[in-house]
Amino acid sequence: MEAHAKKQMLKYTIRRLLLIIPTMFFVSLITFGLSHAAPGSPFEGKNENKPIPQASIDRLNRLYGIDKPIQEQFVLFLGNAIRFDFGPSLVRDRNVTEIIGQGFPVSAQLGVQALLLSLAIALPLGVVSALKQNSMVDYGSLFFATVGYTVPSFVIGIVFIYIFAVNLRLLPIVGWGDLRHMIMPTFILALGPAAVLTRITRASMLEAIRQDYVRTARSKGLREQVVVVSHVMKNAMIPVATIVGPVTAGLITGSFIIEQLFSVPGIGRLYVTSILQRDYPVIMATTLLYAFFIMVANISVDLVYGVLDPRIKVGK
Amino acid sequence: MATITAAPSQQRAIDANLLSRKQRSLWQDAWWRLRRNKAAMGGLVVIALASFCALTAQWISPYDPTAINTPLANADPFFAGTKYVDSHYILGSDQLGRDILTRLIYSARISMVVGLVPTAMVFVIGIALGLSAGYFGGWLDNALMRFTDVIYAFPDLLFVIIIMATLRNTALGEIAGGLVLIFVALAIVSWVGLARLVRGQVLSLKEKEFIEAARATGVPTKRIMIRHLFPNALAPVIVSAAFAIPGAMLAESTLSFIGIGIRPPTPTWGVMINEGFVVFSQSPWPVLLPAVCISIVMLAFTFVGDGLRDALDPRMKL
Amino acid sequence: MPELLEVKDLKTQFFTRDGVVHAVDGVSFELAAGETLGIVGESGCGKSVTALSLMRLIPMPPGKIVDGSIMFDGQDILKMDEDDVRAIRGNNIAMIFQDPMTSLNPVLTISRQISEALELHLKMDKAEARKRTIELLELVNIPSAKKRADDYPHQFSGGMRQRVMIAMALSCNPKLILADEPTTALDVTIQAQILDLLKNLAREFRTAFILITHDLGVVAGMTQRIHVMYGGQIVEKADTGELFANPKMPYTWGLLRSIPRLDESRKAKLLPIEGLPPDLIAPPPGCRFEPRCQYRREICSQQVPELKHIPNSKPDHEARCFGTQEGGWLVNTDWRHDTGSAKELEAIKAEVADLPPEVKRIEAAEEDK
Questions:
Q1: Whole-angstrom Cα distance, residue B275 to residue C214?
Q2: Which of B14, B19, B234 to mutate to test the interface with C (most CBs of C within 10 A)?
Q3: pLDDT at residue C228, as a whole number
Q4: Is C87 on the interface with A (CB under 8 A)?
Q5: How many Å is the Cα radius of gyration of chain C?
Q6: DSSP category for residue C77
Q7: Predicted ipTM?
Q8: How many Å lie between the alpha carbon of C365 and the closest alpha carbon of chain B?
Q9: CB within 8 Å of B183: residues ≥ 6 apart
Q10: What is the torsion angle, in degrees rounded to the nearest 10, for the CA atoms of residue A64, residue A68, residue A72 and residue A73?
Q11: Global confidence as pTM
Q12: What's phi and psi for A107, nearest 5 deg?
């Protein structure tokens, strides 16, 4: 039985991992199609006062292969992408892989820090506010969750910059480097996910706590702490685990804005500037990287879900 | 007694417990619960106010939103105390000397439109496709699910950013300062989630006895879908609409903030923040005031959404 | 015989937005060690709340036990501190709940859920508790118990899960088991098996039990005595045989008339009790059954009848009815043939038929739900 279940799970994991390939294909197709749908060449109009002569644009187009028919460009792109070769950036004089390799550790650090911080805030807050429903703690955490969930992160970021950097001069306004640079971006990036996680934790704790099996547990004479930890929380954590996928996606989109706002040299900012500059190779590589991360996050969530909830048969 | 106005015979029946007096229909009950929710009612008031500003912007605002007056640039608002010297602009002016109050009022118009139009588009598409996929299954359902798999690998905003950035310079992107393109981009991204939600609802409802009963008595398919499935799937759909509206507003302001949303000089709160951010350290008000407006309107919609969710289905999560 | 359980004037209320619900309103009864008792009544009559009150498992808020005493083994449960109550729960008093589908924790194994109480109350270590768990599962006839102990609840059928609940209840050898509608959620064929199992094991373990049900048919062969509850109160108390042979309360008559019988001619109709149970926020001022009673008189809506001994019956037979008590108008009524005057009830129903449409719409909307 046990061995069979493990085999089933392995098969499922492999199938899901293999499914990444066609999904990546479609993601590239859509992104490629969309980003090339814009009229004109990316080399036009960089500097509106001094237009680049048409001959130079044509030469640049030829150099980067943008003059070829779009189908051919796509096939070429796919062939190279399989070897993780995304070619040179159209704007910076460097290879895309190199540029991303430089920005990725920064974004990854920011993202992981924010994820851990949001969990550290949300789980205790959600559990406590569910256990003390309608208390001051509960109202406080609901307020926090509502504000964190609704107020746009760039607004909170601006207010923080105004208070801590401009007025109090406690923290640097922008940039990246030492710990003091990381405090505001990490906290503000964590805020949205923390708010969502707090709401989910509280809601699923409240849901679990009124289930019949909790009454059964109490009828056995268990202490309230035992009831909460081993009966309520074990059930309540299941829905919480399932939103780690969406939370990852949220961290990625959040990083576009936060990195822009605080001038963090990560791939979020790189991505936004590349889109504005129509730097196709960077757009393609970054999109695929993001899509890959989100898919891996979703697969892990499904696997964890299967482990947490014995009713879910992974592989069905 | 709860029913004060009960007729004598009605009261008699109530006393005899032949009629139950405290029971209301689902919608009556929901409305009753919503009305008791102070945050939601407060939210409704704010939304009403914002809608009023949006509808009457050209009459109630003191100036032209795009009129530049450089000599009076960066004026402080009245609550800035001694620094408030120029009584032309109650809430001050931005770095080009445009009246902030006027621009805030006009921004409400864009925000409300951006909140409502794509949501309406999404609803028509999402409900139609979700109902059909859930009810008929088969290839339609398969296609929907595969398509959502791909869409789910993109974060929403990433997809919108790509669409916005690439189509900005096309004819579509030029209409109404990019407003129409925003509608389209938001609709393309968000109909999938709603279709999936409706599909899930239909799949679980399909197994319920009352649908089987309707089918067994020979009710035509179209009628089952419209009369039986749709009303029962409605509650979560309404709640998700209530959250989709502020979601779309947030997306617009975020896009405008990073410079690929509505084109300046058309004022929106996001555009105002984007423009003011350049001179933020000298004069924070052109940034802080629209930030406060977005936050209040977003909170209002979220309170109403929360209230609706609690009222329609207290057991529903997030 | 010294009483194991003595409940006096128990009052449990729920404080809701519509008002105070008098869910249990002055219930008193006794139970000797090893004795079996059935509590019967419609849903919403307060029988489950009574059981939960005995273990102090009423959710507070909105619930509250406002008055009364529950003497168990000479101690008042309502006066104990939380630690002492916990020492009794699962150990001296155990409970079996109605829905075995939802009463077991879906993410814990069966053995974990049974062992928990053993480790807590009997101070067993993990290995001992596991051994005992398997013995208990065998006792309730779970096939290949050793293997299935590590299964999760969803891998068991409804009947099997209720067996697990019984094993769990018996685990610490309690003096009293409260079984709240233990078979309502099960198939009819399984019901009989579960009831038999419960009865036999309780006898073997010399455990007293209270069986709570809405179905008079279920308690018939199960318990020594029966108490009938209506509107938060006990309305009739009698030995099981006496209650079926010589019921003394129109509500009990109504219950008995609504059970199909094999020994009566086919012509005997099943008669439902008309109307709805009383609203426990504002219960009827007199007898709580008065609005639905086919035998009512003026006095029934004006004074509250007490639970009193009934003439021409066994000494411990009591009922809460002016009609059947000493000097009442129902003393000689043969309930099997005289179904009372339906005239007044018809009149009320006619009035309802004439009600304005908006009132009826409330009813219709309610049905839609």
A1: 72
A2: B19
A3: 92
A4: yes
A5: 22
A6: G
A7: 0.80
A8: 5
A9: B114, B117, B118, B121
A10: 30
A11: 0.79
A12: -65, -40
